[in-house]
Design goal:
seven-stranded mixed β-sheet; alpha+beta; 2 helices
Length: about 240
């Protein structure tokens, strides 16, 4: 393509940029738009979107600055671009996603607290070529509601739980035949051992009772003999 044809194409973006403006769709000369209401859970985060418009050509605008207020229209500032400032209640929790070439963006609030429930107002500062500063702000702002944090649910492992029988763990699911037969032999062996142990204990108990009864009989016989001997002595 020849140079005469390229020049208009190269100059077109600059022409569009110098003559562009962010005009409002409404009857207002300039305004800031925000959603009226938003909600987010405690401990979460929220994006408060905003957009603004004005009648001035971009070539006549030297700089744009964004600040945020809360609680009411004339409330305390919580964020300032230049000089950079973040309210002590929002330290390490605010982030402004916006650059000067954009007409919209959002303010992010992280690690939400119940105390963050309030109104939030975006404020725009325009510095024009004549060093004239124009300032406007959202009138209604955005009402932020903090809801309860969702309950944490613990997930149950998908693996099959093990069933314990007489101190031995027999896991569910598929098993190889060798492990199954081994566990069955162990269960049978323990059952037999338990039965023998019960028989032995029963035998010991029977033996002790028999021995005790024999000792009682011996003692009775001894007492009887002593009693008879005593009677014989008295008779003599």
């Amino acid at each position: 393509m020849s140079l005469p044809l390229l020049l208009p194409l190269l100059l077109l973006p600059a022409f569009l940029q110098n003559g562009s403006s962010i005009k409002c769709n409404s009857d207002a000369r300039y305004e800031v738009n925000q959603p009226k209401r938003l909600s987010a859970p405690k401990g979460g985060s929220i994006h408060i979107p905003f957009s603004f418009c004005h009648p001035w050509e971009s070539a006549s605008v030297l700089s744009v600055r964004i600040t945020w207020r809360w609680k009411d229209f004339h409330g305390a500032f919580i964020y300032n671009m230049t000089p950079h400032f973040i309210h002590t209640d929002f330290q390490n929790r605010l982030f402004l996603n916006w650059t000067e070439s954009w007409e919209n963006g959002y303010l992010q609030i992280s690690n939400l607290r119940k105390e963050d429930e309030s109104l939030y107002f975006c404020r725009v500062y325009l510095t024009l070529k004549k060093h004239e500063e124009v300032v406007w702000q959202s009138m209604p702002g955005t009402r932020l509601t903090i809801t309860r944090a969702p309950k944490k649910t613990t997930q149950v492992p998908s693996t099959t739980a093990a069933a314990t029988t007489d101190g031995l763990s027999v896991s569910g699911g598929k098993k190889c035949s060798g492990s199954w037969s081994l566990s069955m032999e162990a269960v049978i062996g323990i059952a037999l051992f338990t039965a023998v142990l019960k028989i032995v204990i029963l035998g010991v108990m029977v033996y002790l009772r028999w021995k005790r009864s024999k000792e009682v009989v011996d003692v009775a016989q001894r007492l009887t003999g002593m009693f008879k001997r005593g009677l014989n002595q008295d008779e003599q």
